[in-house]
Design a protein that fits this description.
It contains six helices and six strands, in the order ββαββαββαααα. The protein is α+β, with helices and mostly antiparallel strands. The protein has a single domain (2-167), classed as Endonuclease I-creI (Roll). Strands 3-4-6-5 form a four-stranded antiparallel sheet. Strand 3 (27-35) and strand 4 form a beta hairpin. It starts with a strand and ends with a helix.
Length: 168
């Protein structure tokens, strides 16, 4: 039995379980609000799945990339290699397939999938103000569940700033 990922190839459930465990232990999922000149309001959402590994032992990242059929490897100056997967459709598809196997990041991934559902093939400016404000709340909720995040203890002032950016 398998599940389709990105290239519509079947990925064995045992491989999905292994990748989910790797994400639980040495990975992160991010929703970032990024400046852009291509959006009239100047902002966009960026979704990223990232796996981290010591560069001396980066082979599992190449394997994950091969199995999922997507992503790029980045070699950092601090001796860490990252496998990064960006994009709405790609992250949504992969996260849905990994969700049954996740243990520690399951709540956070469920929240990020809610954000992806709100966005669903639309640009930020096409969403209602109410939906954009809901996205802000969900971003903060997911940040509270991360192991290491500079956003965990952000003030209400910062949250208000993000609401102002996204509410237009």
């Amino acid at each position: 039995m398998g599940r389709p990922i990105q290239t519509h190839k079947k990925v064995k459930d045992t491989n999905l379980a292994y990748i989910a465990g790797f994400l639980d232990g040495d990975g992160s999922v991010m929703v970032q609000v990024k400046k852009t000149k291509f959006n009239p309001k100047g902002w966009r959402l960026m979704f990223t799945i990232c796996f981290y590994q010591d560069s001396n032992h980066a082979q599992p990242l190449s394997w994950i990339r091969k199995i999922l059929g997507i992503g790029y490897l980045s070699y950092r100056n601090d001796g860490i290699t990252e496998l990064r997967i960006n994009g709405y459709a790609q992250t949504e598809r992969i996260l849905k397939d990994l969700l049954p196997y996740l243990r520690f990041k399951k709540k956070q991934i469920t929240i990020i999938l809610k954000i992806l559902k709100l966005v669903h093939n639309k640009k930020l400016g096409q969403l209602t103000s109410q939906k954009r404000l809901k996205i802000v709340d969900l971003i903060y909720e997911s940040r509270q569940l991360t192991y290491k995040s500079g956003w965990k203890n952000l003030s209400n002032e910062k949250k208000a700033e993000l609401k102002k950016i996204l509410a237009y």
